[in-house]
Amino acid sequence: MSELVFDGVLLAQSDPVERLANAFRERQVRMDSGDVVVAVLLLLGLVVALWLLSRLPSRRTTRRASPSRPLVLLLSLCRAHKLAWSECWLLWRVARHHGLDDPARLFVEPERFDPANAGPVLRLRAEELEALGRRLFGNLPG
Q: Under the phi-then-psi rule, with left for phi > 0, alpha for psi from -120 to 50, and beta for the rest, what region is 102?
């Protein structure tokens, strides 16, 4: 029975991390390949854990769609009005043509949909622009 206890003590003393630490403390060059694998895995685990911890705050902030960001607000309004992707892209191009910092202003300024106010590239899509204006504002004069 005492031999089993003694063997258990020897097994407990052969912890690879402890052996590795002892090897560094005693400045021994002899290291088991298992010790190196354990050290590499520990280091890799530490790096992954630190990387995950660094990603948590940024994930929390990017998960919320802040309506203060102009493009996010424009896309939210496009989704709310059930506009197609091509219509959202047209709105973005109109906003860029008019130099709007906040493209969501297009949803409250019907005069922006007048082809006479559009540039040469947007005039090519004048019918689509007028139709989109009618869809958003109905028959408002504008």
A: beta
